[in-house]
Amino acid sequence: MGYLCAVKDCGHNSIKHQGEYRFFRFPGIKTKQGEAIRQLCIERRRVWLARIFRSDLNEKSIENTRVCSDHFVKGEPAHLKSTTDPDWAPSLNLGHNNVKEKHVETATERYDRVQDRDVKKRKLEAEDEAARIAAEAARIEAERVEAEQNNASDVPMDIDPKTMDQQCQTDIT
Ligand SMILES: [Zn+2]
Q1: How far apart are CA 161 and CA 96, in angstroms?
Q2: Which band of pLDDT confidence, cut at 50, 70 and 90, is reported for residue 156?
Q3: Distance 37 CA to ligand 1 centre (A)
Q4: Chain-wide mean pLDDT for the chain?
Q5: Model pTM?
Q6: Distance separating alpha carbons of residues 62 and 36, to the nearest angstrom
């Protein structure tokens, strides 16, 4: 069975143009590598469909649809995670000039944001933990100082009351 390239007005088909062009399936949706990968797959498929103006394709018809190598800079799609690669989605000879790099950037940014969010979340959790430990250490230190001062107050102090007042004021400001 031959395939007609899904790109409008391309007309390349896998029988007539065998060996001349390669024909690629739409990006599959990987479901077993975590939510970030699944979302990236969905986004990539969405960008492919938007690029070739084929939002009419559904899950079933996509299975029997191919995009030919004529629409990729390097003649084939880039790896899923290479979101900044121009070949992350078809970009050439699409029969229109509406390819906006923004599409790729949006997908990339979204992917980065998911990664960033995880990193930031872990960082915040670590910071919370560090702050909690610091607060606990400060509390213990304060108790220790207070205990020392209590002990010290048993000892007669040889400090001029005026100086003490100044010290108190200094502490307050
Ligand atoms: Zn084509």
Answers
A1: 87
A2: low
A3: 27
A4: 82
A5: 0.56
A6: 22
